[in-house]
Amino acid sequence: MTLNVGGDINSASGLSKLNEYLSSRSYIEGYSPSQADVTLFDAVDGQKLDAAKYPHVKRWLNHIASYSSEERKQFTGVKKDLTAYGVTANGATSGGDKEEDDDIDLFGDDDDEEADKAREERLKAYHEKKSKKPALIAKSSVVLDVKPWDDETDMSKLEECVRSVQMDGLLWGASKLVPLAYGIKKLQIVCVVEDDKVGIDDLSEKIQEFEDYVQSVDVAAFQKI
């Protein structure tokens, strides 16, 4: 679907169409910022925008504003005229008619020192808020095969030894005994590990330190979660 404002983008009708268009999209075209975003960003009068009435436009403006003018020049795509998006010249000019250092309409005229200062403060607050978001913790689900020496090994004691291994970022899960041959059974046990904290090789070595019970440790399954 292509955006078609059908008039002045800063009119109630134009902003409503843009808001509806952005309600299910992050960008004007595709799944990453492009020159289409720059063209429309330069045309929308963000300083007078009613954020409560057009929340999706406000979100999009804030996001594009978080990039510097130099970064926006590096966006992909070819910069088109506003008419490509059904925007007339009523109160809006295409991005090509604006001076390159007219950075962010959302925060006013760059020639105005107070507006410039407000813009910098808002950008700083935006980046600080963004940096405080908790990082996603990478985890993996691992199934280990722990094999005993023979059929006389106390498998209950073997499992007790395995579960006694404690590491930051390690959580033991379900287990079961799986028949091998000649009456020998192996312990198959599930664990969840934080990738940055627990190395599977290190974990296997710690388990194999119980050499009276453990003959070997193998990874039966490994899955990122």
Automatic annotation (TrEMBL):
InterPro entries (alphabetical): Arc1-like_N, eEF-1beta-like_sf, EF-1_beta_acid_region_euk, EF1B_bsu/dsu, EF1B_bsu/dsu_GNE, Glutathione-S-Trfase_C_sf, Transl_elong_EF1B/ribsomal_bS6, Transl_elong_EF1B_B/D_CS
Bias (Acidic residues) ranges: 98-111
Protein keywords: Elongation factor, Protein biosynthesis
Domain Translation elongation factor EF1B beta/delta subunit guanine nucleotide exchange residues, every copy: 139-225
A Pfam short name: Arc1p_N_like
SUPFAM superfamilies: eEF-1beta-like, GST C-terminal domain-like
Recorded GO MF terms: guanyl-nucleotide exchange factor activity; translation elongation factor activity
Residue ranges occupied by any Elongation factor 1 beta central acidic region eukaryote domain in the UniProt entry: 106-130
Record-given protein name: Elongation factor 1-beta-like protein
Organism of this sequence: Dinothrombium tinctorium
Lineage: Eukaryota, Metazoa, Ecdysozoa, Arthropoda, Chelicerata
